[in-house]
């Protein structure tokens, strides 16, 4: 099935918030690490994983971009020495075959202070059915993170409501999409800071990207090897017909009983919640 309007909104909104938090909060840290051979999610490739995820991919945020890696101290880019792709969300490198055992794979890059995920899990499932691992500290002995292993701090986005209401003659509807963000932070300071950034997006326009404009390929890397710059990619898109309006934001706290039960499972996590009301006039039947 080809992407529909709701898919376009969620993928575009994730990139919008990812950029907003990164730029406003200077929410990244530059690191230098090795990459480690791990179980590959792709049958035809050898996977080498960083000890962190997600790796910053947006040039407009700042920080060190991972445009290539070092093999025993020699810098290579995608398409050379067997490096097929860099998956920024998973923090993984895909090689056409395993490297010799004595090869050290290393890189310099920025990691996000908050990872972003789109989810269909409910609030209860996210809070009470998962135990989250903290992002590794730089002083720890490092190893590669597995595919789909989620570490916090992170933010989960879930479209919890989608409504159309008649707006004007000719079939124009007012589409309202409510998006819930569950924030899992590693300190009260970071929780308050990121909730402030999220709340302050009220009355901003979110640029909408088509599937062809989406900056990442199926392997999680840059399309055609072109560096991704959110500011440049979305220039002149808002406010236009290629945007959706944030009509309202609401930042809340979890009730004491919910919080206490959650802390039993994840005692070092500081949870928060924010809801966004996104509205757009459109003709869904055209």
Describe the structure.
The protein has 286 residues and is α+β, with helices and mostly antiparallel strands. It has one domain. The chain is 18% helix and 36% strand. The chain contains 5 helices and 15 strands. A 7-stranded antiparallel β-sheet has the order 4-3-7-1-2-6-5, with no helix packed on it. It has a 6-stranded mixed β-sheet with strand order 8-11-12-15-14-13. Strand 3 and strand 4 form a beta hairpin. The longest helix is centred in the N-terminal third of the chain and has 20 residues. The two termini are 18 Å apart. The mean pLDDT is 91.
Task: Give a quick set of tags describing it.
alpha+beta, 7-stranded antiparallel sheet, 6-stranded mixed sheet
Topology:
Layout: H1 5-24, E1 28-38, E2 46-49, E3 68-71, E4 74-77, E5 83-87, E6 92-95, E7 105-112, E8 115-118, H2 123-128, E9 133-134, E10 151-152, E11 154-168, E12 172-185, H3 188-199, E13 205-207, H4 230-233, E14 243-252, H5 256-265, E15 270-282
Parallel strand pairs: 8-11, 9-10
Antiparallel strand pairs: 1-2, 1-7, 2-6, 3-4, 3-7, 5-6, 11-12, 12-15, 13-14, 14-15
